[in-house]
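Deliverable D4.2, example record:
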Amino acid sequence: MEAARLLGAPLARRIRSVALPLARPAIAAGVALALMETLADFGVASYFGIQTFSTGIYKAWLSMDNRIAAAQLATVLLVVVALLLGLETRAQKRLRFAVGRARGGAEAQPVPLRGGARLAAWAICVVPVLAGFVLPVLFMLRPLAADWSVLPRDRFLQWSFNSLRLGAISAVLAVALAVLLAFRLRRSPDGITRGVVQLAGLGYAVPGTVLVVGLLLPVGWLQQAWPQSGVGYWMTATIVGIVWAYLVRFVSVALQSVQSGYARIPASLDDSARMLGAGGAGLLARVHWPLLRRAAAAAGLLVFVDVMKELPATMVLRPFNSDTLAVVAYQLARDERPGRGGAAFAGAGAGGVDPGGAAQPDAAIALTRAFSRRSSGLALQRVCGTRLHRWARAPRGFRCWRCGS
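Output generated by the structure prediction step:
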């Protein structure tokens, strides 16, 4: 850019002829990541009735009880994701255009904006946050401001506790696993270790519905072949299965942060520690961990955010009476009961705000639309035990939102 400016090229031509060709690999990688996130989305597509791979897998498994169809759809989606991931990896390999820039150069100095340009820059930065997070949350909290009785406090506290518990457990385990993998890769960067780390890094690209099918199919076959094992109980009636799915999908997020932290630790520290008699676990605990605390904290926060807003895997694998805020927000929006759904989404959104921006659950758009058209036709009144509670639609039959039965 500096050379082009010295040759007299205007700013528009510098961007078109120099900056954009250099940015093509990064643009291709960003497009591939956006496509993978779109393929993995479930809540918005399901609410608006859009037929996607994720909604098709969910319906084939739970509604039609067709495991073969769900496995076939999951395989096709996995192949598409693998192709997109290969495109992103290929684009990342081409990111070798690092050019050293002199300190204090004209291109490295910030350009002060004034007048309309300054207002436009502020609008570009502020409008997405306001339109995507602040205004929807305020809009959905209107029923609570008018009448707090629409919020079931006991149930809301239970939903919040379930979300925070799963997020904290998954974050701690993901960070611990990421630290061990990164430490092993630093100590012994052989082919097997690199392969394991690369395999662990692929989990984030796999949609949650594919992980569910990949977990429940082998569990079902094993339960049929060995009924006394109890593997079906441990995977579906406890948090073991859902935490396993979280680790498979989100350990790559923690691994990237931990590896970034390791990149700032010079190898000479390892040599000095070994000369002083520290090796193995002592090297990790006494030398690496104090320097990795900030990276580990950032990794845990990112995993916690992703777990708080994860929807498809949580809907299928959660134990009974263990709904999370994201699941409740989606179900209440689908049942056209936005008063409670707004509170659930606000709680999930409050737990899902990270330093990089507002990370909203999949049910955000669904809840926003639900507020615009209230309807009581989807809720029924049935007798639950000895009390009359409100029942709402569930994937199979009905479930009482007050007592969970």
